[in-house]
Amino acid sequence: MNSLKNTSLKPYNTFGIVCQASEVIELNMIEEIAEVLRYIKQQNKTLLILGGGSNVLFTRDFNGIVLLNNLKGIQVLSEDSNEVMLTVSAGEVWHDLVLYCIEKNYAGMENLSLIPGKVGASPMQNIGAYGVEVKDLITQVNTIRLADGAKVSFSNEECKFDYRSSIFKTTHKNQYLIVSVDFKLYKSPKLNTSYGAINNELITKGISSPNIKDISEAVISIRRSKLPDPAKIGNAGSFFKNPVVDLTTANRLRKEYPTIPQYEVGENIRKLAAGWLIEQCGWKGKTIDNYGVHKLQALVLVNYNDATGKQIFDLSTKIIDSVKEKFGVELEREVNII
Ligand code: FAD
Ligand code: EPU
Asked: For residue 255, how far is its CA from the centre of ligand 1 (angstroms)?
């Protein structure tokens, strides 16, 4: 068991927030889990599991144990001429898994290219991008229950996946260590180019019959054109969820703001673009000292240089308040606040 006391968490969160944890433990092998859990219980400290730290905001030092999940391994569980089932350890880097699948010609993950973080966090908020959510590919999530060390697997249905949500972020929050995720992928691609920007990118590149690698590369270029690279500018992707409203609210807003983007997600339910709402409130590109709102994507809050998590949190509260005042719509934070 590899453990470090009073350690800086700056290298472990993509916001680049400077803060400390009482202790950081690296989990490198599945055989170490029982020992690690016993140790954590003995210490009687709060536990925080981290993958790539790309969806967290530390607002203070963490007075507890941070468990870094480095469990590695990709295994084929079964395959036939149409499908392949993989089981992937939680510490694998998500984009490396996407590239592995593209290399093997296993289709399904290509629209989820370049999402930062690790495989273990992918079911947490049901990661999604460009018309695909990981719930479309997950068959089972394999965990260890922290309370008693029991192995518990959750089927896709049991995970209760929803837009940026699952039981691991709601009813079962902080109760399970995800150790691996099982995926079903396809040997003949069912390409999803429903997101307009992908088609535009393919047209620009002169590609008329794309393969999964072409889709992945199109997604990567779109992402690079508007999302800040956490290696250069601290951020955690979209800070807020896109709000979901009823039809009456959607119609009221459309009347007042005819150009407001709205997406149908159910008969009487519409999703709004939080980025658009925030931009209309004048926040896009706003910089306060060393932090602010990204200039190309208003949903992304950024840390240019050693801002505190508290400053970024307070900025997010101001944004929530101004969107509520102008549009009567309540934004919800997507990022996990610690
Ligand atoms: P972490 O930030 O380490 O953890 C996130 C949460 O999951 C925490 O609550 C943590 O305790 C918990 N957790 C992590 N691993 C485990 C585990 N093994 N067991 C139990 N709990 C665990 N997200 C999208 O959905 N779509 C996008 O397009 C997208 N784009 C992004 C772009 C950028 C530039 C950035 C910085 C982030 C983006 N994100 C996006 C958010 C982020 O990449 C995802 O949420 C990702 O899945 C987080 O993975 P992680 O390993 O970094 O998780
Ligand atoms: N928009 C603006 N101004 C902005 C940003 C967006 O007007 O500053 C408008 C766009 O013009 C467009 C709409 O909002 O009409 C949607 O924008 P975009 O396609 O960029 O997607 P998004 O809704 O802002 C969501 C996800 C992203 C994901 C992309 C692509 C959420 C909270 N965010 O962003 O996920 O990559 O779609 O599918 O659902 C993340 O979760 O961290 C993340 C980056």
From this structure: 36
Structure tokens at 197: 């920007």
- Give the integer Cα–Cα distance in Å for 65 and 75: 30
- Ligand 1 neighbourhood includes 56 CB (under 6 angstroms): yes
Catalytic option among 89, 238, 270, 316: 238
Long-range contacts of 92-97 (CB under 8 A, 24+ apart): 92/118, 92/119, 93/52, 93/117, 93/118, 93/119, 94/52, 94/118, 94/119, 94/121, 94/122, 94/127
The closest ligand to the CA of 154 turns out to be: 1
**Domain 74-186's class?**
alpha beta
Burial label, 103 (beta-carbon count in 10 A; 0-12, 13-18, 19+): exposed
Q: Is the CB of 69 under 6 A from ligand 2?
A: no
pLDDT digits (tens, 9 = 90+) for 221-261: 999 999 999 999 999 999 999 999 999 999 999 999 999 99
pTM of the predicted structure, to 2 decimals = 0.97
Which fold does the domain 2-69 belong to in CATH?
3.30.43
Atom of ligand 1 nearest to the CA of 12: 3
> What digits encode the pLDDT tens for the residues 18-51?
999 999 999 999 999 999 999 999 999 999 999 9
Domain ranges of the chain: 2-69, 74-186, 234-337
Q: Give the whole-angstrom CA distance, residue 309 versus residue 67.
A: 20
252 in catalytic set = no
- The helix/strand/coil state of 121 is helix
Q: HSE of 52 in the Cβ direction (CA atoms, 13 Å)?
A: 24
Q: CB count, 10 Å around CB of 259?
A: 7
Q: Which atom of ligand 1 is nearest to the CA of 235?
A: 36
Whether 55 lines ligand 1, by a CB cut-off of 6 Å, is yes
Q: Is 319 in the pocket of ligand 1 (CB under 6 A)?
A: no
| Fold adopted by 234-337 | 3.90.78
The DSSP secondary structure of 84-96, one letter per residue, reads EEEEEETTSBHHH
Q: Could you tell me the sign of the dihedral formed by the alpha carbons of 253, 262, 127, 172, in that order?
A: positive
